[in-house]
From TrEMBL:
<feature type="binding site">
    <location>
        <position position="206"/>
    </location>
    <ligand>
        <name>pyruvate</name>
    </ligand>
</feature>
<comment type="similarity">
    <text>Belongs to the DapA family.</text>
</comment>
<feature type="active site" description="Schiff-base intermediate with substrate">
    <location>
        <position position="164"/>
    </location>
</feature>
<feature type="active site" description="Proton donor/acceptor">
    <location>
        <position position="136"/>
    </location>
</feature>
<keyword id="KW-0456">Lyase</keyword>
<protein>
    <submittedName>
        <fullName>Dihydrodipicolinate synthase family protein</fullName>
    </submittedName>
</protein>
<dbReference type="GO" id="GO:0008840">
    <property type="term" value="F:4-hydroxy-tetrahydrodipicolinate synthase activity"/>
</dbReference>
<dbReference type="Pfam" id="PF00701">
    <property type="entry name" value="DHDPS"/>
</dbReference>
<dbReference type="InterPro" id="IPR002220">
    <property type="entry name" value="DapA-like"/>
</dbReference>
<dbReference type="InterPro" id="IPR013785">
    <property type="entry name" value="Aldolase_TIM"/>
</dbReference>
Amino acid sequence: MELIWEGVMPAVTTKFTDGDQLDLTSFKKNIRAQLDAGVNGIILGGTLGEASTLTSEEKETLIVKTLEFTKGAVPVIINIGEQSTEGAVAVAQRAEEIGAHGLMLLPPMRYKATDHETTVYFQEIARSTSLPIMIYNNPVDYKIEVTLDMFEILLKESNIKAVKESTRDISNVTRIKNRFGDRLKILCGVDTLALESIVAGADGWVAGLVAAYPAETVAIYELVKAGEIEEALRIYRWFMPLLELDISPQLVQNIKLAEVATGLGTENVRPPRLPLQGEERKRVLTIIEKAMLCRPRLPEYKNL
């Protein structure tokens, strides 16, 4: 399957049972909702997917089951955030063996690598697989920035195709386009900057709140691409208090509470994460409840 780095690609949550096992029934329901809404890909095992707590076997199960659930409708992409280059290469090769369509790569974890070390890390993974790759550029959370000069080197690897742009600097979309044109596809990785990034020329949106609100997310993307900015803004303004739940260390707990509200998931998280408590739980629930009371009517966005 050809992987086109465009459109809405949910970074889906991983569902767990009350007994802390993979909840594949709930997971399948959510994947079906994403497909029904018109997403363009599924990304597994990111931060929102609680990747750091998943075993290798669980990650493989998620890939295999997502391929089964999607039945070729959209590409399935697995995130790689391992502790070593050797470990990352092994995950990349195994993902290709079992049928994943693409990779999202974080920089080296638990070590603030230099620009050269980070570049070599990405190069070695890229050279170990034929799968197309999206680099996750998030210096705010991961303390390593992939600069344009680094991308100049990295784009010599033909399978490095895209960037998940999470620098929080919307002008970076323009800098990337000016320097690389369409050679490097740009997917916004920050929910609260998505509409602005798409207007500026981003090709897609790696979304978080899409896990609970798939149709609203895809509608915003499609409306902006069709030039229907006012209609997109109407939905985006309603969405913003919810989207802000994504820019928090507790984004997983927040978004899983939203999934409960829309019937697309459960609140179960894997320790050391725990469900929200006290005043913070009340605050998040209030945001969700207010949004649910005035959930917008969507236009026929699929045929724009």
